[in-house]
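Technical note accompanying the year-one report. For the benefit of new consortium partners, we illustrate the data format agreed upon in the data management plan: each record pairs a sequence with a structure-token string. No post-processing was applied to the example shown here.
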Amino acid sequence: MNMEESATLKTTLSEKIAGEITLSPRPGQTIRKWREIFEISQSDLAHYLEVSPSVISDYESGRRKSPGIQVIKRLIQGLIDIDEQHNNAKTLLRYQSIESEKDDGIIEIMEYHYGIDMEDFISHIKGTLLTSKATIKSGRDVNGFTLVDSIKTITMLNSSNYVKLYGWSTDRALIFTGVRFGRSPMIAIRIHPVKPALVVYQQPGEIDPLAVKLAEREHMPLVSTNLRLQELRKQLVSLRME
């Protein structure tokens, strides 16, 4: 990536983050989401901005009034500069990969402005928990979703590009359509070190008990929903606006 490409990516990513924060109904939580995506601590960001860590904490918790656009610009510049200086531009390169490579197996991929409580997410999509209730006590919120065609995804993705399913965050729902028994998606998930927050089967056929057993072994919620695809997409997208 040359300097011109890098500058373009920085501008595009900065505009994306700024748009999310300013449009978010909970801007503090959206700031926290992006700070965590960049894997930057409150202390490191505060040091860059020459403020107390409590200032960052207050913005993220909502104790302090939502920052104005100039403060948001400084926050975003801090994230990108620290990423370049200390993380070898890891997040910027990840954004380049997300934007440049698409897969036919991915129907839709979306990030939420902030984490959604897992039980609220399951309820919103009218889901039925197939695993034990203990699996939803992981403490992980749902930061986004990836809706995929199970057959295309399983046949097209290999171990090196499997991570494309995760977008910005692994704390997301992987939602599989076209599931007959549910064994193949769970086998693929189990053998890969990167794990989602939960797995959802949309209008599955008869679910193989092995799929449930594999999910239990991973301490991962496995959920089914009988919503039709169009309605499911509508419900998933609507969570971003709440």
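Partners are asked to follow this layout when depositing records. The chain has eleven helices and six strands.
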